[in-house]
Design brief:
It contains 19 helices and twelve strands. By secondary structure, it is of the alpha/beta class. It has two domains: 280 residues, Crotonobetainyl-coa:carnitine coa-transferase, domain 1 (Rossmann fold); 77 residues, formyl-coa transferase, domain 3 (2-Layer Sandwich), CATH 3.30.1540.10. Helix 1 packs across helix 7, helix 6 packs across helix 8 and helix 7 packs across helix 8. It is elongated and about 85 Å long.
């Protein structure tokens, strides 16, 4: 790996992404944002399924949904038919000098194509091979396909999400096991790259949606290990601290975080409710958790006496942790979001400037950069093949035999035709 200041900490790293929808592409996007050259290899004829998600940018039949553009910015794209000899030859050459490959195909798919970990480790011993799947590559569920909803249910997340026990199961709003699996895969690749710097040898990184879901149960698993009881759904409340939840005001809802004794006393002081501090039922956190119902009954009418902004201003002045409950659009417009660069713009080859979420880590010496829109299907086919030694004649032959697809053949729009 080579690094260059200002181009991201992974500048000089090459990653081949054989992944679709969210978990694998999340990993690829994180690496690309940190400066890696991520080449997204899409299947022929349809490419990544998320291209056809219903929220499209412009014409949906062109395969450029906002969902796809969010997950695949900063990557280059090539469309390869791995069922053809030509397509396999292309992937082989792409992998020759790659640092890592990401795949989230079903169990044994890559092995059947001749690109499983065992085969690639023999041919490219320095290569980091990252597999993201529903349940991991070992164990009794290894052959099952994986979806976020299924993983949320099986990992216990849906038993602790929602308003209360006895209500219908509720999933966490975002596809948290998909996203978290992508982050775990990123972490694993970075650790494997660091180890390779010491040993010169690559390895397999194997994680899953199921393990991602389990990872998110740290607090609740701790409770279960300690007590033997299954924690249940608590709405916005916390399983270990109170009051730490949302309360209704005269015009909306706010979150308050009295997660320790000093903040509890600070909160009731702002609320002119010091008598609650003298109530033996609320003397400390253990008592407040034991008498949670009575605590909520005492606090709820007080919160309703003032507006959300009144409470938030008073709490901020007192140094007490509290915050509004924002919509996604309100979050996008929040000055802190903008100050941290968490909403930014990127240039897309078909649609021009599009909004996207920024990179969530700041590096002082090698800043991450969002500089390239998600690729149109097959957008970089000519460019990537030329970089890897394919002549124009060879590329045309690959196109004719259906081994690769250039952008113009799919999109049929002048602005994305190959030069």
């Amino acid at each position: 790996m080579k690094q260059s200041k200002g181009a991201g900490p992974l500048a000089g790293t090459k990653v081949i992404e054989l992944a679709h929808v969210m978990a694998g592409p999340t990993c690829g996007r994180m690496l690309a944002d940190m400066g890696a050259d991520v080449i997204k290899v899409e299947r022929v004829p349809d490419g990544d399924d998320s291209r056809r998600d219903t929220i499209a940018s412009g014409s949906g039949d062109q395969g450029d949904s906002h969902a796809f553009m969010m997950m695949n910015r900063n990557k280059r794209g090539i469309a390869v038919n791995l069922k053809t000899d030509g397509g396999k030859a292309v992937l082989e050459r792409l992998l020759t000098d790659a640092d890592a490959v990401i795949e989230n195909y079903r169990h044994d798919t890559m092995e059947k194509l001749g690109f499983g970990y065992a085969d690639l480790h023999k041919r490219f011993p320095r290569l980091i091979y990252c597999a993201v799947s529903g349940f991991g590559r070992t164990g009794p569920y290894a052959e099952r396909g994986g979806f976020d909803l299924i993983a949320q249910g099986m990992s216990g997340l849906m038993s602790i999400t929602g308003e209360a026990a006895g209500r219908p199961p509720v999933k966490v709003g975002p596809p948290v096991t998909d996203i978290t699996a992508g982050l775990l895969a990123t972490m694993g690749i970075l650790a494997a790259l660091y180890n390779r710097e010491q040993t010169g040898v690559g390895q397999m990184v194997d994680t899953s949606l199921y393990e991602a879901g389990i990872t998110l149960t740290y607090w609740h698993s701790a409770i279960c290990f300690a007590t033997g009881d299954n924690p249940g759904a608590l709405g916005s409340a916390h399983p270990l601290n109170a009051p730490y939840q949302a309360y209704e005001t005269s015009d909306g809802w706010i979150n308050v975080g009295a997660a320790n004794q000093s903040n509890w006393l600070r909160m009731i002081s702002v609320m002119d409710a010091e008598e609650l501090g003298r109530d033996p039922r609320f003397a400390d956190n253990a008592k407040r958790m034991e008498n949670k119902g009575a605590l909520d009954e005492a606090l709820a009418p007080v919160f309703k006496t003032r507006s959300s902004q009144d409470w938030l201003s008073a709490f901020e002045e007192a140094g007490f942790p509290a915050g509004p409950i924002r919509s996604v659009r309100e979050m996008h417009e929040d000055p802190q979001t903008l100050a941290r660069g968490m909403v930014t713009q990127v240039e897309h080859s078909r649609f021009g400037t599009v909004d996207t979420i920024g990179f969530p880590v700041t590096f002082t010496e090698t800043p991450a950069e969002v500089s390239r829109g998600a690729p149109v299907y097959g957008e970089s086919t000519w460019e990537i093949l030329a970089e890897h030694g394919f002549s124009e004649e060879e590329t045309r032959q690959l196109i004719e035999e259906g081994a690769v697809v250039p952008a113009a053949a799919h999109a049929k729009t002048p602005e994305v035709e190959d030069a």
